[in-house]
Amino acid sequence: MAPAPVDLRAVLPKLTEELPQMIDEVVDLLRDDWPDYASFVADDPEDSLRIAEIALHRLVRIAEQLPSERSAGSVLVTPVDPAEHEAFEEVGRLEWREGRSLASLLSAYRAGARVAWRHISEAGVALGLDPASVATLAEAVFIFMEELSSASAHGYVDEQRTTSAERERLRAHLAELLLSDRTDSTLVSAMALRAGWTIPATAALILIDATNEAGYAALDRLDPNCLPVRHGGLAGGILPDPDAPGRRAVITKTLAGCGAVIGTTVPPTQLPSSVRVAEAGARLASAGSIKGDPVFVADHYDTILVARDAWLLEHLRAQALAPLAAVPTATRRRLEETLSAWLTAMGNQQATAKALHVHPQTVRYRLGQLRELFGPSLDDPDNQRRLMLAVCWDRPG
Questions:
Q1: In CATH, what is the architecture of 11-163?
Q2: What distance in Å separates the CA atoms of residue 302 and residue 277, rounded to the nearest whole number?
Q3: Domain boundaries, the chain
């Protein structure tokens, strides 16, 4: 038969009376190594006293159950009151919200336990408790410390997880807002503040393949402040200050192999206008019309400007190159190549021959063919501009 529980509640009145003194001693103990916790305890004495009373009663209940559980050979299963558990968890949640570390909190708990045990043991001896009862109280202090630490750690991690999830949700919403046509500076500022994002002077939209999880991991490595973008068919991120010194080299190295397209660097208010340019760059990169790993659209404005509307470009080509329509395919290909090199060389036949790796006489012969087909329009400046657009950039696709 299990022995009757030792009546340890006799220590409660004395310990409750000494709680303010105990709290003052804890504050003094914490002040040197953990000043934040010392201030936390001292600045809200009523709440500190309430938590201390909850802890004290919980500790005594544990001590009362120990003899019978020890006799039965069982582990401690004394149920925790939900309100008490929530109070201990809330301490952990508050620590995360205040930006303090869990390790420091647990160290502060141990410091507080030393003060508490000194008062508990002195009260037990003063009240004439037998050594076994005092030892039971000591064991209860250790068990309670594990229980308190576990509950507070759970609250800390749970708040961390909740805060992180909310922060990511706000960051995604902020990215969506920055790319929308309804951008409002006041709304953006408020959302950025809630998301913990400092609005940069400039930013750029980075696009990656939506199925490329390695690309998202690379964006995280590139800059933790890169806002995630996964909305409306877009996938990637908004990168702050992409033109900072040395930034391009880091972007190139980090995003190599991710099929990334780095959009135009603009003030955040102009990000909506940059979306269509970045998307055009991504399409042309996918089609092979522009090269790069990653692709920086700023290096390809001319190609994007000319080729981003494939339907319109094909109609321009058909119109400008109509004189070549009836020419056999192989001949047409050589003549278009020669026309492109000649226009690029601004009419210099020697430079044209060098670019094509052919004899200058071959260039003169082909130019003669072109003049027969195009007539005087070949030397017309306005028509030359149209021909430049038609043949000097690769077709998308």
A1: Orthogonal Bundle (1.10)
A2: 11
A3: 11-163, 201-307, 320-391
